[in-house]
Structures are given as structure tokens and as C-alpha cells.
Amino acid sequence: MSCFVCVTCGTQVPDSAAPPHRCPICDDERQYIGKGGQRWTTLEALRAAHANSWRHLEPDLLAIETVPAFGIGQRALLLRRPQGNILWDCIALLDEATLALLRALGGVTAIAISHPHYYTTMVEWARALGCEVWLHEADRTQVMRPDPCLRFWSGATQSLGEGVTLINAGGHFPGGTVLHWQGGADGKGLVCSGDVLTVATDRKWLSFMRSYPNFIPLSRREVEAIGRAMAPFAFERLYGHYFDRVIAADAKTVLEKSIARYIAAVEGTRGY
């Protein structure tokens, strides 16, 4: 019996003698089945062919990525705090080296995840680290491997203490979540957004989609709701879903301008 892992998206499913015929996460219109068809692997096979690499992003913020890249290239961020570290988002590969480094850095007291494309092997991580995984209730049906370690929250925000707040921004998924850290960016505040708020390639703008690979946009109503969800929070910096996707300064203003630009584009009111 194995908990098979989808090669395309990295999602892990419950123990079974054989892999499922399809991955429901990839079969959804927001994702895709790889060109080679539905393929599965295991954590044991991943550990044999891949390793995790670390980066320092700023004081008390580290990043973990898998090399060579796996799945959709997910990466995780580690927020270091006096009362307990938080892992933001999740990657599929968990190995003994990663566990040893996390424990040496003080362990992890909570995992929080932006949306189902980052659920990956979250149950493995939570069991190994002895913590809970915070997920928004609106995306409960997207969980492929149920487990008691999963803690569902509801509503607009959820405090994790020490100036860390989960915000239900919606958009990409109904439970689409971003993390606001009041103490980040030298006390000016930072946001970890996954691709709920996606940093554009030019790193000057943000954009918003229901599906990025399949080019399905969001409506004006949905993007305005994102703006309302983020309005109460001050932040200088925003970390997107890839390492080169960072709004380094004045990120709150960038978000506001980006929402206005997006709405003008979808409504046909933008001047050329």
C-alpha cells in the first residue's frame, strides 16, 4: 500500500494498492493533466531523485524548494517566530534532511496553505512535525487525503498569533488564502500570496485568475472582493508563488493599482 503522489501537481492521495485513474485536482478546470497522461509516483521515489534546497529571503523568512523542480514548481516559506515557526504553503518532497533542518530551526507549530494546488503532501509534513494544517473551510472538498491534523477555519480572517493573520481573499479558489505578517519587511508588513495574488513577470503588477494555465479570468465582482479583503492590512512587500515573483516595495499600492487596471481591462474601459 502506498500514498501515491500525482506527478503533475504533487497532490498525495490516501493509501491504496494501486493509484487512482485520475487526480481530481488536475482534472479540475483550474489545473491540467500532463501531456503524458495521468502519472503517479511515491515519496520514496521522489526522495531517490530529488532533494530540497533552502534560500534566505529576509530576517526570519526562509524558503524551501525541490530540485530538480517537481509538480508545478511549488515552494514553501518558513516564518520564524519566538512562539513557534509557521510553514506557509507546502511542497511534495519531505525527506530526513529537511526534517532535521526544520527541527534545528525550532520546529514548526503550524502549517498554513494558500489553496489546493499547494496541499501536496501536507499530511506527511504535519504528522512528521507534530502540528496542524490550517485550511479554509470553503476548499474542504478539494482535500484528497483527509486526516485529523487538518484544521479548517471559516470567515474572513484567522489569527495565528504574533502578528500573523490568514486572510480569505477568494478568487482563484473560494477559500483562496493569503498570509499577512505584521512584523515582516522590517516591521512594515509583508504578504505571502501564493498565486491568489499573482506577481506578474515584470514584477511591477499583480493579476488575478481562476485558472492560470487555462487562461480563465476572474470577474470584476471577484477581484473587487479581493481588494476589500486586503484593504484593512498594511504591507510593504509581497512574495508570490515563485522566487522571482516578489513586489519588493510599496506592495499595497501596487495591489490597489493592479485591481483598477484589471477591472478596466475586463470591463473594456481601459484607454490605449
Describe the structure in your own words.
The chain is α+β, with helices and mostly antiparallel strands and 272 residues long. It has one domain: Ribonuclease Z/Hydroxyacylglutathione hydrolase-like (Metallo-beta-lactamase, Chain A, 4-Layer Sandwich), CATH 3.60.15. It contains 7 helices and 20 strands. The protein has helices spanning 24-27, 43-49, 96-104, 122-129, 184-187, 220-230, 251-267; strands at 2-6, 12-16, 40-41, 51-58, 61-67, 75-79, 86-88, 110-112, 132-136, 150-153, 157-161, 164-168, 177-181, 190-192, 198-199, 206-207, 209-211, 216-217, 237-239, 246-247. Strands 4-5-6-7-8-9-10 form a 7-stranded mixed β-sheet. The chain is globular.
Summarize the structure.
With 272 residues, this protein is α+β, with helices and mostly antiparallel strands. Helix content is 22%, strand content 29%. The chain has a single domain, classed as Metallo-beta-lactamase, Chain A (4-Layer Sandwich), CATH 3.60.15.10.
- CATH level 4 superfamily: Ribonuclease Z/Hydroxyacylglutathione hydrolase-like
Major β-sheet profile: 7 strands, mixed
Write down the CATH class: Alpha Beta
> Which percent band covers the strand fraction?
25-35%
> How confident overall, as mean pLDDT?
96
Number of strands: 20
How many angstroms separate the termini?
A: 59 Å
Structural class designation: alpha+beta
Q: How is the largest sheet built, in terms of strand order?
A: 4-5-6-7-8-9-10
CATH architecture grouping: 4-Layer Sandwich
Low-confidence stretches: none
The CATH topology is given as Metallo-beta-lactamase, Chain A
Number of helices: 7
**What shape does the CA trace take?**
globular
Assign a percent range to the helix content: 10-25%
